[in-house]
Hints:
- The structure is a single chain.
- This protein is mainly beta.
- It is built from two helices and 24 strands.
- A hairpin with a 5-residue loop joins strand 12 and strand 13.
- It is globular, with a radius of gyration of 19 Å.
- The termini are far apart.
Amino acid sequence: MKTSLRSRRVIGVTLSSIIGSFFLLSPPAYSYNTPYPRPPANRNVTISDGGLSITFNIAWGAVVVAIDNANVAHGLNIVDTHDVGRELQVAQFLSLRIHGRNRRIINPTQAGALGRQAYYQHPRGIIIREKGSPVVQWKATKSSFCAVVKPLDYDTGNPTRWVYVEHVRIDSRGVATFRYVFYDHDKKSYILSFASVPTLYSDHTGTFMYPLVSPYGRKGAALRLKRRPKWPVKVVTGAPLFPARPHHIRSPLKSKGWIANIDSRDNVGIFYTTPVGFLESYGTFAGAYVSEAPPLGKTVVFVRNILAHPGFSFAIRFSVLVSTPRRGPALISRQPKAMFKILRG
């Protein structure tokens, strides 16, 4: 029986210590015109501290399927898990230059592969079974998690030559620090035309929030020193349908330090830091089948047009917390600046 969003809570296993394990994944069968299977709950792993809990699904590339705080909205989780293209995760869109034009070749996606979508131009069209990216090794403690992921190409389900290493730790204040390292083992040089670092889909999210003043500039530094700072923010409700190809947005937002998906109905938001000056965007999807609890919202921060040579690697770091729309801006503004760094060019 399908549970309602309000009654839905994190289903997982809190572990004190787990030694690395290996898994073979078998994709579930489905009809293309029916809702996709949700991530198997028996492959969930949950870590927690300071009221915050984060759940990862091992069958879906150790992707984040739930983020909740027991002290906010009664521990409601609003992360959307409709298919492997959702959740909180990282992904890339890589292309080769063929006959003078950039052609998208692979889309390594942390959660896994879904197959055909209208804007992917396969010669014969492709419909594949939804399947999760393999997690070759993982380890968890009560408040930390790490995993080594071999992301599948989202379009075809084929393995890629990339490796994503995920590290997450929650502190006693209920703030999570995420760090991903991306390793390229391909023998060709690609243009990294677009990388989600990260993207977040959430249920009941028709409202988005971001700062008008960066916490890390001169004015923001002064506000950070105040006990009860009033952060100037932009609140957008009823944002238009999110573009199918976010890296083609003509006038994307530039990060001032963080962004948030807000469920105003339940007075809860997921806030996360984003590298200052990086492109980011937000919006809602329409339609009866996009979410268990429409509207379905999406935020994404991305990097564009980097040349990925063989052996290329880069890292991202950002903070995540759950709070109310009133308290969240001050809480997220106290967190360290998000980071993007090329480790090897």
